[in-house]
Design a protein that fits this description.
The complex is a heterodimer of chains A (309) and B (175). Chain A has three domains: 46 residues; 41 residues; 155 residues, Rod shape-determining protein MreC, domain 2 (Thrombin, subunit H). With 309 residues, chain A is α+β, with helices and mostly antiparallel strands. Chain A is globular and about 90 Å long. Chain B is an all-alpha fold and 175 residues long. Classes of the chains: A alpha+beta (309), B mainly alpha (175). The interface between A and B is large, with 46 and 48 residues.
Chain lengths: 309, 175
């Protein structure tokens, strides 16, 4: 004989059973997200659902900023204008020299047979807010996949590399800063061309060069730029300056701490560089003419070299 | 009157409306999405409101609501999907289990219980993130839950306003 309660007393499964259900569901999601990245579709749907709330939440700050801009005094604007003019003069001088240098570089590269560097496309974006995750260093910018931002694009400011787009939503995208613990960037020392990989050092706001031999040729004040060998970051963008080198005989590697060049955790505007222009061209279909092409290239290179001599 | 809201002096409240609960959750999400200067110090309003409804209405709001809110928080903040869902489901379970006990205390006594619940949420999130390989961001993450718990009396007062109106509206009354 079983005693089942009448249906109006029925309260569904016991709380502990429900907790076990939701906890296991959460664990499944956590593993799928952290290990396999299978949840991007679900995430983008949910993100779109909370997007109106997010815009509403950031609206007062944006409005306040706009009102403050409106009431900026004339003297302030004048001063800023003069300042910008002076900067522009300096920059245009640099730009003229850059044009000449670029033409020269292109010519030299053609001479040695290296592939031409394609011009970069870039897009200005405004930082909406810094990420609401105390465990990671991220910022959210106001350009998304609708504006052509792709996951993986490098993000720079006027002084150097800021980070990399790690997730492009429809209207906003998340940029992981260089100082994040999981972020790595291939760099090169300007002084001697030494290659290394810089990792974020987490909460200290610094970068670290790991796995550099204790006797590596590197010293305080060395400037690091992107080496460009990963195909993601264009070469030659400032990344950091070496701030401290600790060489301990007990360890095989030196401990090298660097200060990021860009205002990684400050500033308001950034440039998103399009990295698709730098990707290798798609391989052409295999055919009988396949083997001839490299020979031709080699021949033309040889011709160039002869001409140079 | 506010601080003596223990069962002895409790008023009989109107039944809660679903729109009040949903609206309060939407406002809490909005408050969490505000551009806070320091995320570690910002109180988690969603957890606070969820704890409130789980304590006051354990039959209406439970682990399912907490889990969904957690998912929305995770997606909106761009963090690991499921970390807040897990923490909020646990929070809802604990709050429902303790709801009879918590309501027996005066508001500041309730706030102490809520502080423990919110620290549990933060602890679960921290454990998940550390297991996923993140750095420990420092003990400042424990400050947010304490600030949120200090807001408990205010939240209680605000969220009970819709239930405190008299049943018969007397047009001739002054207030």
């Amino acid at each position: 004989m079983d005693h089942t309660p009448p249906p109006f007393f029925n309260r569904g499964p016991a709380p502990l059973v429900r907790l076990a259900f939701f906890a296991s569901l959460s664990f499944a999601l956590l593993v799928l997200d952290a290990r396999f990245r299978y949840t991007e579709g679900l995430r983008s749907v949910l993100a779109l659902a909370v997007y109106p709330l997010q815009t509403l939440a950031t609206m007062p700050a944006a409005l306040g900023g706009r009102i403050a801009d409106y009431f900026a005094s004339q003297a302030q604007l004048r001063e800023e204008n003069a300042d910008l003019r002076a900067k522009l003069l300096g920059a245009s001088q640099d730009a003229q020299r850059f044009e000449a240098a670029r033409a020269e570089t292109a010519q030299l590269r053609r001479l040695i047979g290296a592939g031409e560097r394609l011009p970069l496309k870039s897009m200005a974006a405004e930082i909406l807010y810094s990420g609401r995750d105390p465990y990671a260093k991220k910022i959210v910018i106001d350009k998304g996949s609708h504006n052509g931002v792709r996951a993986g694009s490098p993000v720079v400011d006027e002084a150097g590399v800021v980070g990399q787009v790690t997730r492009a939503h429809a209207l906003v995208s998340e940029v992981t800063l260089l100082t994040d613990k999981d972020q790595a960037i291939p760099v090169q020392v300007v002084r001697n061309g030494l290659r290394a990989v810089a990792f974020g050092a987490g909460s200290s706001g610094m970068l670290e060069l790991r796995f550099m031999a204790a006797n590596a040729e590197i010293q305080n004040g060395d400037r690091l730029v992107t080496s460009g060998i990963d195909g993601t970051y264009p070469p030659g963008i400032p990344v950091a300056t070496v701030a401290r080198v600790e060489r301990d005989a007990a360890y095989a590697f030196a401990r090298i701490v660097c200060l990021p060049a860009a205002g990684v955790e400050s500033g308001r505007y950034v440039l998103v560089l399009a990295n698709e222009a730098r990707q290798a061209p798609p391989p052409e279909e295999a055919g009988p003419g396949e083997e001839k092409r490299p020979a031709k290239v080699r021949k033309s290179r040889r011709k160039d070299a002869d001409a140079a001599q | 009157m506010l601080l003596s809201d223990s069962p002895a002096t409790q008023r009989i409240l109107l039944p809660v409306r679903a729109s009040t609960i949903i609206g309060s959750f939407a406002l809490a999400l909005l408050a969490n999405f505000l551009p806070w200067k320091n995320v570690a110090l910002a109180p988690d309003f969603v957890a606070l409101v969820l704890a409130f409804w789980c304590v006051r209405q354990p039959r209406l709001v439970g682990m399912g609501a907490g889990w969904l809110l957690g998912l929305l928080t995770d997606a909106g903040n761009g963090v690991l999907l499921g970390q807040h869902a897990l923490a909020y489901a646990l929070l809802a379970f604990t709050a429902i289990t303790l709801s009879r006990r918590i309501l027996w205390f005066a508001l500041w006594g309730q706030a102490l219980h809520v502080a423990a619940l919110l620290l549990l949420v933060q602890g679960v999130v921290a454990l998940v993130r550390l297991a996923a390989g993140a750095d420990f961001p420092g003990w400042t993450i424990a400050v947010g839950p304490l600030i949120a718990a200090a807001l408990w009396p205010v939240i209680t007062m605000l969220l009970l306003i819709p239930q405190r109106r008299p049943v018969e509206v007397d047009e001739t009354r002054a207030i």
